[in-house]
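Q: Here's a chain of 296 amino acids. Please give me its 3D structure as C-alpha cells.
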Amino acid sequence: MSMSLTLPAPAKINRMLHITGKRPDGYHNLQTLFQFLKYGDELTFSYRDDNQLTLSPAVEGVEQEQNLIIRAARLLQQADTSAPHARPAERRGADIHLIKRIPMGGGLGGGSSDAATTLLGLNRLWQLELSLEQLAALGVTLGADVPVFVHGFAAWGEGIGEKLTPAPLDTPLFCVVHPGVSVVTADVFRSPELTRYSPVISMEHALRRGRNDCEPIVRQHSPAIAAALDWLSQFGDARLTGTGSCIILGLTDEQEGRNILLRVSEEHTDWQVFLTESSNISPLHATLNEQPGMTG
C-alpha cells in the first residue's frame, strides 16, 4: 500500500540563553527558554518497502548522508520495536521531500527540527510505536536541540538543552529578521570572550529577565548582525535567538509588525523578515494529533 504523510518542521526561538559552565566533554551547560513559531520547513514522507531512503531537493553544501534528516531516518531503520504492525527493518524505506524555509545558521533550529519531524513522521509511517522518550533519546545523539522538537512543548532547557521542563510562556507575535549572513555555532562557543559562567537561576527568574550570553560575541564578529540588532531595537526589546544570526522582537500589535516589514522592504532589501505567531505547543504535534492512524 502506498502511503504518505506531510508534516511541519517548525522553527524555535530562545527567549533567553545563559551559558553556565563548560563540561569535561567540551560541551557547555546552559539555561534557556525554548518556544515554537508557527513558521518553518515542511517534509513529506512517502513509504517505500525496499529499505531505500531518498531526499529531495538536495540541501546545498550538505552531503545527503550527512543531512540530519537522513541520519534520523537511519537511526529509525535500525531501531528495535515490538509493535505488532511495525515494518520490518528491511522494509523501512521512504522518499522524503523537503520544503526549506528556515534559514540555515539562523539560530531557529531548522536542522534539529527537520530531524525531529523525521523521527516522529517515520515512527508513524513505519508503525514503530516508539515513545517520545525513546525518540528523544535517539534525537539527542543528532543534536542537543532535537529533544525539544520531539517532545513538542515550550520548555525551560538545562544541561546541554536536553533536560526539559514545561514553561508557561506568553505567546506574542514575533517579528524575525535574518540579516543575510550565517553564524557557525562552534565558532561562538570557541570564542575566548564568551561568558561561560553565568550564575544558575530559576525558571521563574528567567521568565522575568534574561539575556542571550552569545549576543555580545556575535555582535563583535558580525557587523551585519550588529547593525540589524540596532535597527530592530528601535521598535522594542530585540535580541538574538540561539547562537545564530536571526533577531527576534515580540509584538502585541500586528499593524506595527506590518509597518516593520514595509520598512525592511524599503531600507534593507538584503534581509529576510517575517511575522509569525508563537506557540507553546509545537505545530508538528498539533498536526500529528489531527492525522488518522496509518495501517496497511
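Q: Can you summarize the key feature?
A: The mean pLDDT is 94.
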